[in-house]
Design brief:
The protein is an alpha/beta fold. Helices cover 53% and strands 10% of the residues. The chain has 17 helices and 10 strands.
Length: 390
Amino acid sequence: MQLRRTQFSSEGSLAMLRALNRLQVIFQHLKMSKQTDSAAEVLLEKKGGAGVITLNRPKALNALNLPMIQKIYPQIKTWEQDPETFLIIIKGTGGKAFCAGGDIRALTEAGKVGDKLIQDFFVGEYRLNNAVGTCKKPYVALIDGITMGGGVGVSVHGHFRVATEKTVFAMPETAIGLFPDVGGGYFLPRLSGKIGYYLALTGCRLKGRDVLKAGIATHFVESEKLPALEKDLIALKSPSKEKIADLLNSYHMKCTIDQEKEFALDEHMEKINSLFSANSMEEIVKKLKQDGSPFAMKQLETINKMSPTSLKLTFRQLREGASMSLQEVLRMEYRLSQACMKGHDFYEGVRAVLIDKDQSPKWKPAALEEVSDEFVDSCFKSLGNDDLKL
């Protein structure tokens, strides 16, 4: 009798376990399907004639990680071929940021242990930047909120960039031992005068209408009007690039926020153009010291905090990029990205700015003069079979 009771209880337990397992599987599926809805890090939807990309990591300020990049890239390629898709819209959720950059922390962790992510991430990101830059369908980026680094890469190369009063643009990479990548070597030297050099080397932030005035945005619309604008874009019947431009212009013309405000850099443009036109990074520093004006001293103070290696790489990146195609620039930047991943300053910069937040990185080398031309040359050298293929 004892034996049979044990047998029954163990069989009962097994049945219970199986039932529990089944429940767990069901819950897992439910969780998964829920995740793909609200918790998916990027939402890809077809609305009317528009393909809509929504960056959906509000807590991380919509920073791009590799899984997001790997979802967006093939979707852009698919929509590009689809005769029923007439335009592509990209936006961010959460109200604070369009996209604050790439997932720097993940890269730091990967780099420390020699993980393949340090290649895969940059390959994926730069291919995505190129897909945006060569997109055959009109591409509209609603850059509402913080737009930095990787966020610039998925917007600036497209046909239309709509800024709002909440937009904050910056390429702050020299402060973390990197360089303004994602095609920065292409668009920055093409901005008027020496604005691009100034933004790249100092990491200066531009806000609201200034993003338009610097030539980074193409339109300026109130943040609260974006849902209506998106609705109107989606409602357009088989729109041409001209029709989309007309619609964006009509919203732009009606926007009166900060209309009278002068461009924040206007009063300094003469100085920016003269101080940042030089043949070397050392020469820029020398010019700033000689000028001695409050503006020049402030820039000098900023530049002195940046990674000397990053400054030298960035200076050359912009000079070379000025006469290259976007594809050539991205290939060059991939080489630089891999050099930075092998170096010291990127990990030290991330530690000082993002992890310990002590804001006092110990750069190696610590001075511009110690970053040799031979070293800089080596960072630009071909990687042979490992070069970026677009």
